[in-house]
Design a protein that fits this description.
This protein is about 0% helix and about 60% strand. By secondary structure, the chain is mainly β. Strand 7 and strand 8 form a beta hairpin. The termini are far apart. About 30% of the residues are buried.
Length: about 120
């Protein structure tokens, strides 16, 4: 079984910063891509940022230039540095990781989510 635990969410004023962390643990053979998604009330879950095991990244247009995704492969951890936060960034942020539990067995796991609230 693979577990993802997010942390770092909270309440911040517009223009402020937060750093989210996501730790992957459990029966893991490898971790390939890791990503952050978010879901605001009444809206669909959307991709915020993703990073491959080699460090290649991609971002949604709405966060490009403000958010930075990174990972520490030795710690099985991904981070999302969020700067210049806007009220519209308010959402529950979810971590996602995909990889192999065994050489022949893949997984696609989600964390429980962490709330980010940006006040005006």
């Amino acid at each position: 079984q693979v577990q993802l635990v997010e942390s770092g969410g909270g309440l911040v004023q517009a223009g402020g910063s937060l750093r989210l962390s996501c730790v992957v643990s459990g029966n893991i053979f490898s971790i390939n891509a890791m990503a952050w998604y978010r879901q605001a009330p009444g809206k669909q879950r959307e991709l915020v940022a993703a990073i491959t095991s080699g460090g290649s990244t991609n971002y949604s247009d709405s966060v490009k230039g403000r958010f930075t995704i990174s990972r520490d492969n030795a710690k099985n951890t991904a981070y999302l540095q969020m700067n210049s936060l806007k009220v519209e960034d308010t959402a529950v942020y979810y971590c996602n990781a995909g990889g192999k539990r065994r050489p022949w067995q893949t997984y696609d796991a989600w964390g429980q989510g962490t709330q980010v609230t940006v006040s005006s």
